[in-house]
């Protein structure tokens, strides 16, 4: 008689443990998918995706501000904002000299988390490098 009670207790303990594990897993999955704010990694990936679109369409190389703003506004997710600064450098007698700065988008907020990234690219003229460029970007949740 004592053996039956022990087996019943062990069965109940194993079943309760399995139910607890399943509930913990489901709770973790639900909590992960309902994050109201984008994580920094997702915002950074969004910024790199937008920079890639700007480069692949030729907007970065053309240095056309209105074209770049249209692309930034159409490719960034609706719950994020993005700002860019493009710095252009020329090689003058072996020294890199900054020649141009271009800003796109709203000012970067000071009061919230901001993801930062950059992309380098070249612009060419007459078969040679005209400018060495750095496109810096900041992405944050609205």
Features:
46% helix; elongated; alpha+beta; 142 residues; 2 domains
Structure, described:
The chain folds into 2 domains: 1-34; 40-141. It contains 4 helices and 4 strands. 46% of the residues lie in helices and 34% in strands. The protein starts with a helix and ends with a strand. The chain is an alpha+beta fold. It is elongated, with a radius of gyration of 26 Å.
Explain the layout of strands and helices.
Layout: H1 2-33, H2 40-57, H3 59-62, H4 65-75, E1 80-92, E2 95-104, E3 115-125, E4 128-141
Antiparallel strand pairs: 1-2, 1-4, 3-4
Helix pairs in contact: 2-4
Gyration radius (Cα, Å) is: 26 Å
How many DSSP E strands?
4
Helix content: 40-55%
Pattern of helices and strands? HHHHEEEE
Shape: elongated
Q: What class, by secondary structure content?
A: alpha+beta
> What value does the average pLDDT take?
83
Looking across the biggest beta sheet, what order are the strands in?
Answer: 2-1-4-3
Strand content: 25-35%
Terminal residue distance? 67 Å
- Tell me the number of helical segments per DSSP (H or I, 4 or more residues long): 4
Low-pLDDT sequence parts: none
Main sheet record: 4 strands, antiparallel
Total number of domains: 2
Give a nutshell description of this structure.
With 142 residues, this protein is α+β, with helices and mostly antiparallel strands.
């Amino acid at each position: 008689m004592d053996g039956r009670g022990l087996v019943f207790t062990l069965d109940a303990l194993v079943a309760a443990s399995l139910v607890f594990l399943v509930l913990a897993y489901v709770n973790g999955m639900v909590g992960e998918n309902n994050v109201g704010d984008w994580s920094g990694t997702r915002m950074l990936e969004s910024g790199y995706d937008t920079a890639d679109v700007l480069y692949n369409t030729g907007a970065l190389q053309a240095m056309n501000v209105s074209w770049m703003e249209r692309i930034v506004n159409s490719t960034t997710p609706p719950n994020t904002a993005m700002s860019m600064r493009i710095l252009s450098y020329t090689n003058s007698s072996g020294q890199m000299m900054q020649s141009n700065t271009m800003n796109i988008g709203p000012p970067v907020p000071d009061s919230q988390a901001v993801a930062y990234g950059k992309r380098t690219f070249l612009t060419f003229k007459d078969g040679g490098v005209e400018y060495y460029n750095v496109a810096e970007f900041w992405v944050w949740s609205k």
